[in-house]
Amino acid sequence: MTQTNDPHATTDTTPKLQIRGLGCSYRSRGRRLQAVADLDLDLGRGEFVAVVGPSGCGKSTLLKVIAGLAPRTAGELRLDGRTLPDGVPPEVGMVFQNDALLPWRSVEENIAFPLSVAGTPREQREARVAELVTLVGLDGFGHYYPRQLSGGMRKRVALARTLAYDPDLYLMDEPFGPLDAQTRIRIGAEFLSIWEQVGKSVLFVTHDVEEAIALADRVVVMTHGPGRIHSEHRITLPRPRNFEEVRFTEEFRDIHQRIWHDLTRAAPLDGAAHGGSPTR
Ligand SMILES: Nc1ncnc2c1ncn2[C@@H]1O[C@H](COP(=O)(O)OP(=O)(O)OP(=O)(O)O)[C@@H](O)[C@H]1O
User: Fold this and answer.
1) How far, in Å, from the CA of 128 to the mean position of ligand 1?
2) In DSSP terms, which residues pair with 134 in a beta bridge?
3) Mind listing the domains of the chain with CATH numbers?
4) Whole-prediction pTM value?
5) Per-residue pLDDT tens for 207-238?
6) Is the CB of 60 under 6 A from ligand 1?
7) For an engineered disulfide with 16, which of 47, 51, 201, 263 has Cβ 3.0 to 4.6 Å away?
């Protein structure tokens, strides 16, 4: 470790993201709803953390608060050891369940969008877009428009666009959510192999426990709302992983069982897992 006078200087052991005492409440129909409360979590450099939890427990809210898209009503966020001010941090890229592509722009133009905004010179931009189109398996579809693509293809475009933006921290909210099971497995496998090459820090929300285990270094289980961390599970399955085959190993089954067990404890006893706790 190098000696330095900068109190915020990062080292390899400084977590990419530190979340301390995080709270978020929404105002809805004259009442306050506490969606996330007192949540602590660290995300290491190049670490992939998946977040699972009962419906409505505040998973999406957690990502939105980090991305500056929902109000942070308590707590602190640190990125590379530096306190994040309120607002949208440029180092953070979010992939939503809804792929949010620009319908009037082609695949290539959608992927190029963050590069254009960043002022990347045209030649460099075109080369990077061509690379990304190949990386996500869309060769030959560069001139198509979103409406001409399947749901899985649109997800790949959204993923390529995030890769073009190349944020330090990926926030992914059910990015394969509405896809059918087969496409979900295919795109999950592609995403896993891409991530294993780029090695960025990822916070990934999913309802699918198997998907969480197959992808992540760590799976955290949230309690029902107001959401906080209930438990954490380190996933020691060797990498590179085969996204599909890894599910058939005994180790995978054991982890799966432990997480399910925690999930049933994290949900309210009456099963009414709609999250949030209304307060005046
Ligand atoms: N903009 C908003 N205004 C008011 N309440 C909101 C808003 N967004 C979310 N909520 C409430 O906050 C709580 C947490 O919602 P959130 O979407 O974060 O949960 P989630 O765990 O991602 O849910 P799911 O798994 O069903 O997608 C819920 O009770 C939800 O109704």
Assistant:
1) 36
2) none
3) 17-91+169-279 (3.40.50.300), 95-166 (no CATH)
4) 0.85
5) 999 999 999 999 999 999 899 999 999 999 99
6) yes
7) 201
